[in-house]
Amino acid sequence: MAVVSRCATCSRHTFIPHEFDRRTTVAAASSFCYSPKKAPQRIVAGSTRGSRVIVAASPPTEDALVATEPLTKQDLVDYLASGCKPRDKWRIGTEHEKFGFEFGSLRPMKYEQIAELLNSISERFDWDKIMEGDKIIGLKQGKQSISLEPGGQFELSGAPLETLHQTCAEVNSHLYQVKAVAEEMGIGFLGIGFQPKWGIKDIPIMPKGRYEIMRNYMPKVGSLGLDMMFRTCTVQVNLDFSSEVDMIRKFRAGLALQPIATALFANSPFKEGKPNGFVSMRSHIWTDTDKDRTGMLPFVFDDSFGFEQYVDYALDVPMYFVYRKHRYIDCTGKTFRDFLAGRLPCIPGEFPTLNDWENHLTTIFPEVRLKRYLEMRGADGGPWRRLCALPALWVGLLYDDVSLQSILDLTADWTTEERQMLRNKVPITGLKTPFRDGLLKHVAEDVLKLAKDGLERRGFKESGFLNEVAEVVRTGVTPAERLLELYHGKWEQSVDHVFEELLY
Predict the structure, then answer these.
(1) Phi and psi dihedrals of 161, rounded to 5?
(2) pLDDT at position 68 over 80
(3) How confident is the model at residue 339 (pLDDT cuts 50, 70, 90)?
(4) Is pLDDT larger for residue 65 or for residue 381?
(5) Residues forming beta bridges with residue 155, ordered by sequence position
(6) 201, 257, 203: which is closest to 232 by C-alpha?
(7) Which of 290, 265, 289, 267 is nearest to 194 (CA)?
(8) Which residues share a beta bridge with 132?
(9) HSE (CB half, 13 Å, CA atoms) of 24?
(10) What is the Cα–Cα distance from 286 to 479, expressed in whole angstroms?
(11) Cα-Cα-Cα-Cα dihedral of 45, 49, 50, 53, to 10°?
């Protein structure tokens, strides 16, 4: 699978099949999926760089996929279906964010420092620069990209890789390059899920057009959206599926177990210098960010679920923007369904391209997200060993048929209410959350064994990457609780020590 551009609150990356080149039609692309849907007979042109289509570059490429006539809902369904690929083409894409800070003051990096860092990495390690206007906002090298979140969080969107050994090597190489430049500037990077010391007023705003639209919109739809934008960091893994049925199975397993991943990687217990009452404040923040585009998506467990049902959901999620003539146009409050009908007041009479659809899909933030692959989105950012452990967990569970079926069997009778209860309570109580006749820790023990067995059956000797979470499962003590022990003990209630403890 070939990487191309963006995602999440901003600019994470999208994987496009190798086969998706300038001659590809949507119809041909959908044939990669073993889906019964009939593909449209319409040719779609692509703008290319080299031999790859660039979709939703950062900033978006307006003409990447231009339909010769208005899109239909079926085109949008087939767009998702085009992500299907045979097992031998399945890859692992890992993304992680981290907070940059000044060594002396512990203050967040300013944009000027970030620009210097990006320019220096580009020159020293041969990365291409990504610009928005005259501002550098990211870097690209092969199938990896570096991008900026709204508050300057520094993100690596990794290449699609075959093994977890490659994933961990990629993480190590990235951290080496960033540290080599940043340390000369007096800058460090912190692996944690929520900014532990500084308030929103202290966080610099990045010069990216889409963030201004989001910043204005967020307070209208939730009380914690600005915290999400400016003060959270995550690690996530992006995984493939072979067919619509395979997508459904992985989506359901991923959603059911997302609270367990949240607990295992819970690492955000501080806010503005004090304990915040959560083990994962980052996870809690998503519960009051924007209910239209977040959550546990109960409809995924309906018998009728498939690509079309996800499209119906996404069509009714309010839009943020449309990108035209090198600028972001505010379209908040209107839906993509309106756009499909040519009824967007912000660009009256215009119809969407597939690139607009790709952009819109990056503005939807459920616990598991479907694009042309599945994103597992429940984990806090953390130190580098955990950056390798998260993809290990999900690859072991979802890329092995035996483990995947075991997870589906394990969670088959979980109710919508139970899944939502776990979603709500895990950010507070972690693995100590009561579940049925025991604790979530006991379920996590079974899940970890299935992940380990799945990795061993893959035959790449990858199960060692789970060691970082094995101790969490054994003790039931989350990373956040260990930080709180230090805070109340050795650190003498000073959160400043976390910048050293979790320094990359």
Answers:
(1) -120, 160
(2) no
(3) very high
(4) 381
(5) 97, 147
(6) 203
(7) 267
(8) 135
(9) 25
(10) 20
(11) -40
